[in-house]
């Protein structure tokens, strides 16, 4: 009899974290590796937010809080959702967790039973399917394609839904593609969901404020108010506010669901860090002036990467609407061989060879459920991106 839980055999470690760890290991060994695998901004946390954390420490706000967040943060979240999304919530409908991942996980743990299905468009954030599996559910993957700019169509969603479907997970702008759904495109999906009243919607809006070229973010409950009572709107301060290490995420939904999530959290981690919560209050209530210049920097970096990767024979690199990722296809490189004799028979082989032979770390597309692609995070300096893209160009040119 195995000592470990059978549940663990259903899931795998995060490939993005594994690649980031491998990059750090090679750097420590003296290799000049450029890491494009980590999904976190290189900007520092804004000073006003750091000051709020210091003030909280000085004021002794270092004790346990309510399991799912302090009242001041819940009020700030309610104000943000009304201000930015036109959605009305009260504090009893808000859950604050240790990062966005925990709020998603809590909801799945609180609602899934064996046999319940969760529809997930691919490519997807690597953790979605494994969190569903840990919670006892069954992920149902709905593949998109480069031809639709990695957007799920209404027909594809309709085909994926069954009487066993409990959740549909929706992420826009997307990790890993940066794809953002327009209001019209999202309305087509919400029209489908209106015909299936047993399906709940879990939205991951973490990249809401990272949008370019006039793209207007929208979220399902905003587009179709009749879905409000079966939508869990999830977000956090990690990406737009450069607060990845502070670990604050939140969700808004029906009181009964939020209470169930609170029960899960109270018996697992209990409250998020009290200092981080007060910093998040300032993030949401304080100045948002840094968002626009940060986005201009990201847009410039996006254009640099898209232009340089798009110039490579065998690679197609669409221009994303948001987030800080691109998701190029390497369909034209499959079957080629590296100078060291490695055959590029998959995107995983491509990513491994790129790391070993060109010192550039990316994440292979199979980790996100759609091949043959790879994900590049452009949340790093222009200089590093330019050098990395030059290395990728040289590497691809060396293939025979």
UniProtKB/TrEMBL annotation:
Query: What GO MF terms are annotated?
Result: L-aspartate:2-oxoglutarate aminotransferase activity; pyridoxal phosphate binding
* Cofactors that this protein relies on: pyridoxal 5'-phosphate
Keyword set, alphabetical order: Aminotransferase, Pyridoxal phosphate, Transferase
The lineage's top-level taxon is Bacteria
Q: Is this entry keyworded Transferase?
A: yes
Q: Tell whether Transferase is among the UniProt keywords.
A: yes
Q: Which reaction does it catalyse?
A: L-aspartate + 2-oxoglutarate = oxaloacetate + L-glutamate
Recorded hits in Pfam families, A to Z, give: Aminotran_1_2
Q: What is its EC number?
A: 2.6.1.-
User: Which PANTHER family does the entry mention?
Assistant: ASPARTATE AMINOTRANSFERASE
**How does it associate, per the subunit comment?**
Homodimer.
Family membership, please give it: Belongs to the class-I pyridoxal-phosphate-dependent aminotransferase family.
Record protein name field? Aminotransferase
């Amino acid at each position: 009899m195995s000592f470990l839980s059978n549940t663990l055999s259903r899931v795998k470690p995060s490939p993005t974290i594994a690649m980031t760890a491998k990059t750090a290991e090679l750097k420590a060994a003296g290799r000049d590796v450029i890491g494009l695998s980590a999904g976190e901004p290189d900007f520092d946390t804004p000073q006003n937010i750091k000051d709020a954390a210091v003030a909280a420490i000085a004021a002794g706000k270092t004790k346990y809080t309510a399991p799912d967040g302090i009242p001041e943060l819940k009020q700030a979240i309610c104000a943000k959702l009304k201000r930015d999304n036109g959605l009305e919530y009260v504090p009893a409908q808000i859950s604050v967790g240790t990062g966005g991942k925990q709020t998603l996980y809590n909801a799945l743990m609180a609602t899934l039973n064996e046999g319940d299905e969760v529809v997930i468009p691919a490519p997807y954030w690597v953790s979605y399917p494994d969190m569903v599996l840990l919670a006892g559910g069954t992920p149902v993957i709905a593949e998109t394609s480069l031809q639709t700019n990695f957007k799920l169509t209404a027909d594809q969603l309709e085909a994926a839904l069954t009487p066993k479907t409990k959740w549909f997970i929706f992420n826009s702008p997307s990790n890993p593609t940066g794809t953002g759904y327009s209001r019209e495109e999202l309305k087509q999906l919400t029209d489908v969901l209106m015909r299936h009243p047993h399906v709940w919607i879990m939205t991951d809006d973490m990249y809401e404020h990272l949008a370019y070229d006039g793209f207007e973010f929208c979220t399902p409950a905003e587009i179709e108010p009749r879905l409000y009572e079966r939508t869990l709107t999830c977000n956090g301060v990690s990406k737009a506010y450069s607060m990845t290490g502070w670990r604050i995420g939140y969700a808004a939904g029906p009181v009964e669901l939020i209470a169930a999530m609170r029960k899960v959290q109270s018996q697992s981690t209990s409250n998020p860090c009290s200092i981080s919560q007060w910093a998040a209050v300032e993030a949401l209530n304080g100045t948002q002036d840094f968002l626009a210049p940060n986005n201009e920097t990201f847009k410039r970096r996006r254009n640099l990467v898209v232009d340089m990767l798009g110039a490579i024979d065998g690679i197609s690199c669409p221009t994303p609407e948001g987030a800080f990722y691109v998701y190029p296809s390497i369909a034209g490189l499959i079957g080629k061989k590296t100078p060291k004799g490695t055959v590029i028979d998959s995107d995983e082989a491509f990513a491994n060879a790129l790391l070993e032979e060109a010192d550039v770390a990316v994440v292979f597309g199979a980790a996100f459920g759609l091949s043959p692609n790879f994900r590049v995070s452009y949340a790093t300096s222009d200089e590093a991106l330019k050098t990395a893209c030059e290395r990728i160009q040289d590497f691809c040119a060396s293939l025979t």
